[in-house]
Amino acid sequence: MAGGKRRVVITGAGVVTSVGNDLKTTWESLLAGKSGGAPITRFDTTDFKVKFACETKGFDPALYMDRKEVKRSDLYTQYAMAASVQAMTDAGLASGGFDPYRTGVVIGSGIGGIATFEDQLKVYLTHGPNRISPFFVPMFIGDIAAGVVSMRFQAKGPNYAVQSACATSAHAIGDAFRMIAYGDADVMIAGGSEAAVTPMSIGGFGNMQAHSTRNDSPATASRPFDATRDGFVLGEGAGIVVLEELSHAQKRGARILAEIVGYGATGDAYHLTGQPDDHEGLQRAMTRALEDGGLHPEDVQYINAHGTSTPLNDPNEIRAIKKVFGAHATALNVSSTKSSTGHMLGAAGSVEAIFTTMAMVHGIIPPTINYQTPDPECDLDITPNTPVAREVHAALSNSSGFGGHNVSIALKRYTE
């Protein structure tokens, strides 16, 4: 790795999404062009402008937590635990084999336990303060997923949550990468979780005109880079990776999925929810990730784009990619897997970094589905509708968030 820092590899991954409750199922769904968009089942949407989202389907927290833990945890924590158990099992570390004092957890959420907050507010308004659950605060706060995962695996190293809206879990992976690279830990469990398909979230995003209103066609509503896109589709779930220092992974004979080589994090300092022209902040994040990883633009084959399916983000991100990659931009495959999973907010970055890793492992670029009408402003190869077989030696995973947060993570196929 550039700069003499310790090398960091991915040895495990787990996801919960609207198109699968584990990584294998989710990956197969992406390649098959499945969409998680469907009418909301969790509450009555009669009075709402938006009546659909990418909810998880058939998720069973009891597979990962005992009944008492489930009852005392918000859904976002349950998703985080499920993806963490999957990732640690995938890495071969679920039963130990690591120094707990050199193992940490960074798991974030863009919104945290908002369903718990809404439920307990109803209790307060109906029955008064004495009926508020004593578990309300630990169920609601955004750091508790990191805490319970650390307890589950007795990880006593660095432990905290980050929160940067839709860049949250990308920051979590980047921070964990740096902790290992600079010697603060040898193993990190990192990513994000979100469970925000609730009345307040759907109402809020709908009223700010950020969410698609294609209530008649929820499965095709998330259509990044398409000229007829009209907003994102809210998703939910979690994505967790296990990161290890290279020699630590080698000594135990771990299967290495990919290597994280670079991390770029920037701020726009521009607008609460908008972006500057040509997304200058994301340009700097991508450039920094490439420099940190010792990569040249022409080394990269694939970019998993932030690609939200909003009128402003998509062409702005395409322009940013063109600015950074120059003539090589036309040789890239770009795709937005939000077309399948919806926008998972604080979980989006980690889930998409995992998809980028899978593209390397399998030599297949996941498609941008629901692409029907070309937009001349989004004129790169956005891998429309059908997966593409291609060897991926280096890739970027991009994330941005309200407040002007930008992250780009650079990954490489692992070679000794």
Automatic annotation (TrEMBL):
UniProt GO cellular component terms: cytosol
The cross-references to Gene3D superfamilies, in alphabetical order and at most eight, read:
3.40.47.10
Enzyme type, top EC level = transferase
Q: Which residues form the Ketosynthase family 3 (KS3) domain?
A: 5-413
Q: Which GO terms describe its biological process?
A: fatty acid biosynthetic process
Keyword terms: Acyltransferase, Fatty acid biosynthesis, Fatty acid metabolism, Lipid biosynthesis, Lipid metabolism, Transferase
PROSITE patterns, alphabetically?
A: KS3_1 (PS00606), KS3_2 (PS52004)
Q: Which SUPFAM superfamilies match?
A: Thiolase-like
The UniProt entry, under CDD domains, shows: KAS_I_II
Q: Which GO molecular function terms does the record list?
A: 3-oxoacyl-[acyl-carrier-protein] synthase activity
Q: Which Pfam families match?
A: ketoacyl-synt (PF00109), Ketoacyl-synt_C (PF02801)
The lineage's top-level taxon is: Bacteria
**Keyword Lipid biosynthesis recorded:** yes
Q: In which pathway does it act?
A: Lipid metabolism; fatty acid biosynthesis
| Active-site feature positions | 166 (for beta-ketoacyl synthase activity)
Catalyses which reaction(s): (9Z)-hexadecenoyl-[ACP] + malonyl-[ACP] + H(+) = 3-oxo-(11Z)-octadecenoyl-[ACP] + holo-[ACP] + CO2; a fatty acyl-[ACP] + malonyl-[ACP] + H(+) = a 3-oxoacyl-[ACP] + holo-[ACP] + CO2
Assigned EC number: 2.3.1.179
Q: What does this protein do?
A: Involved in the type II fatty acid elongation cycle. Catalyzes the elongation of a wide range of acyl-ACP by the addition of two carbons from malonyl-ACP to an acyl acceptor. Can efficiently catalyze the conversion of palmitoleoyl-ACP (cis-hexadec-9-enoyl-ACP) to cis-vaccenoyl-ACP (cis-octadec-11-enoyl-ACP), an essential step in the thermal regulation of fatty acid composition.
Which family does the record claim for this protein? Belongs to the thiolase-like superfamily. Beta-ketoacyl-ACP synthases family.
The family database entries (PANTHER family) matched by this protein are listed as: 3-OXOACYL-[ACYL-CARRIER-PROTEIN] SYNTHASE, MITOCHONDRIAL, POLYKETIDE SYNTHASE-RELATED
Descriptive protein name: 3-oxoacyl-[acyl-carrier-protein] synthase 2
Instruction: Supply the gene name.
Output: fabF
